[in-house]
Write a structure and sequence with these properties.
There is one protein chain. This protein is mostly helical. Helix content is about 70%, strand content about 5%. It contains twelve helices and two strands, in the order H-H-H-H-E-E-H-H-H-H-H-H-H-H. The protein has a two-stranded antiparallel sheet with strand order 1-2. Strand 1 and strand 2 form a beta hairpin.
Length: about 300
């Protein structure tokens, strides 16, 4: 019973941690699904959103604004910053590169990454800023069934609830709305979408704005977990195996990929780590992604690409 309780605790902790990876991966999926561009700048967008939020909160609380009002106004301010960033990226980075090949667009997002990182830290500072929007303590569940109970972090549970709401909303957006269908048409063929009257510049602004708002949501959770700091930008690297496993074009796939990565690396660290050395959770995700890539290159939920000659 004790052994099963430990296994269940590790599994639940891994699944919930994987949901936090999925929050970052969702931004990548949105950009790729709507424009065919792998947005390397998503991690930098999370950093920018987090800095804008935490610095505005500090500013207002220091001037006597009630905490609840400061949180609301801080979220609005950070959302405005992400809207401005989306417009600037569309106007000066990806907009002039319409109809260029995917590699060119990908390289442009790498350049945008360094610009966003530098601008964010120049404007808001480069220290580690604590953010406490969600509880960080834990529950002890099933104490009557397992000795000592099962430890579940409240922050991870909040992340899971937020991810579920996001996935549901984005699925409805892409499948049921006119703008969502236009986004998918642009991703299939920029020139063809333009020929039928779809405004490329507006569509790309919308998708970068939505991805920026997703980055803001991710920043609230990851900022609470780690503090808002420069290392948040490296979440882009952690999201990559999630995307490979779930599929670059699948919103639900981002969640499933995150769950597999989170659970897999925690279980591997606890049960395989003692035999092959510690630190397995740092590279396990990439090995798992490589295995999926060799077996199914488009990912578990990705769309199969068929090219006709």
């Amino acid at each position: 019973m004790v052994v099963f309780g430990q296994f269940l605790e590790v599994l639940i902790g891994g699944l919930l941690a994987g949901v936090l990876y999925s929050l970052v991966a969702l931004g990548f999926v949105l950009i790729f699904k709507a424009s065919g561009v792998f947005n390397f700048a998503q991690g930098a967008m999370v950093l920018l959103a987090g800095l804008a939020l935490v610095r505005s909160l500090d500013f207002m609380v220091a001037r006597g604004v009630p905490v609840w009002a400061a949180i609301v106004l801080g979220l609005v301010f950070a959302g405005l910053i992400m809207a401005i960033s989306a417009w600037l990226i569309e106007r000066f980075v990806v907009g002039p590169l319409v109809n260029q090949d995917g590699l060119t667009l990908f390289m442009s997002t790498i350049g945008a990454t360094f610009i966003i990182e530098g601008a964010a830290q120049l404007i808001f500072g480069s220290d580690v800023y604590p953010l406490r929007l969600f509880p960080t303590d834990a529950w002890f569940l099933f104490e009557s069934a397992f000795p000592g109970g099962i430890l579940v972090n409240k922050l991870d549970v909040w992340g899971g609830l937020i991810a579920g709401i996001l996935v549901t909303g984005l699925a409805i957006f892409f499948q049921k709305t006119k703008t969502g269908r236009a986004l998918r048409a642009v991703a299939d063929d920029h020139a063809a979408a333009q020929s039928v009257g779809i405004p490329i510049s507006w569509i790309w602004f919308v998708v970068w704005l939505v991805a920026g708002l997703v980055a803001l949501v991710a920043a609230t959770v990851w900022g609470t977990k780690l503090g808002v700091q420069f290392s948040i930008t490296f979440l882009a690297l952690k999201a990559l195996p999630v995307l490979i496993i779930g599929g670059f074009t699948s919103v639900p796939g981002a969640i499933v990929g995150g769950l597999l990565i989170g659970a897999g690396e925690k279980l591997a660290e606890v049960y395989l780590g003692p035999f092959i050395g510690g630190g397995i959770e740092y590279w396990f995700a990439y090995v798992l992604a490589l295995a999926v890539l060799l077996a199914r290159p488009q990912g578990l939920f990705g769309e199969r690409i068929i090219e006709r000659i």
